Every structure is written in C-alpha cells, then in structure tokens.
Amino acid sequence: MKLQLKRIDPISAGKVLGGLYAALTLLFVPVVVLMGLFATLAGSASVTMTSSSGDFGGGPMLPGMGIFAGMGLFFALMIPVIYGVMGFVFGALMALAYNLICRWLGGLVLEFEPKDVVPAPAPAVIAPVASPDGPPSLPGRL
C-alpha cells in the first residue's frame, strides 16, 4: 500500500528533533567534563613540576585556571539546552521547507506493507459432563 506524505507539522517536528538533539548531546557531556577536568589537572601539574623549589607535590594552579574550569562545566551543562533549542528551531524550519517544496513537487511516496498478524488461539473451554446419577461434574474429576 502506497501513501504520500503531504505535510509535516512544524511544531511536532521541532519537538521531536529538539528532544533527539538534546538526548544525543547527553552522550558527549561526560566526555567534555572529563576533558575539562584533565586539562585543569594538567595545568596544575605543569605549575607544580616547574616550580623553583624542585618538589613535585601539590602546587598552585595556573592563574585563571579556576575560571576556565567553571566555564567549561557551565558550557558542558548548557550544551544539551543549546542543542535542544537549535534542534527545535531547525526541525521546524525543515518541516516548513518540506511543506513548501511538497506543494510544488508532491510529497514523499512511502510504501507500507501490512504485517501478518497471527491470531491467538482461543482459550479451551471445558464443558461440564452430565452423569446419569447426579449433578454434572468436570471431566477428570470423580
């Protein structure tokens, strides 16, 4: 069975794509946070290793590294929000563009095939059996 997709609702397309983009960025947030943490630790280690005292233990961080660590964490938390909003906006714009092009060229033709549905077997019903000398009883019972 062939069906033709004539129109996509821009708001629903925006919501779906915004949600997808936001969810996909959640895969990258832990990586970005870990990279920022390692960069902060590497900056702290480079100051410690180049100190004039010659010891390699707990020196101060580079000046300004704290602000960069905070900014990195802020942006890592804002990435899903930014991508979600951008996914909504561009998803809605693409749906509007599809609807416009669809008027001139026709919509996508999609072919569907009905799936074979196997009906479930009917439950077995056990009817009472009448006995000549009393009330009916179920089979297998005395």
Q: How do the SSEs run, as a string of H and E? A: EHHHE
- Give the termini separation: 57 Å
Mean pLDDT: 78
- In which range does the helix fraction lie? 40-55%
Gross morphology is flat
Q: List how many beta strands DSSP finds.
A: 2
Strand order of the main beta sheet, please?
A: 1-2
Based on secondary structure, the structural category is mainly alpha
Total number of helices: 3
Structural Rg: 33 Å
Which regions contain 5 or more consecutive residues with pLDDT less than 50? none
Q: Sheet bearing the most strands, described? A: 2 strands, antiparallel
Proportion of residues in extended strands: 5-15%
What does this protein structure show overall?
- The protein is mainly α and 142 residues long.
- The protein has a domain at 2-48 and 63-111.
- Helices cover 55% and strands 6% of the residues.
- It has 3 helices and 2 strands.
- Strands 1-2 form a two-stranded antiparallel sheet.
- α2 (29-49) runs antiparallel to α3 (65-105).
- The protein is flat and about 95 Å long.
- The relative contact order is 0.20.
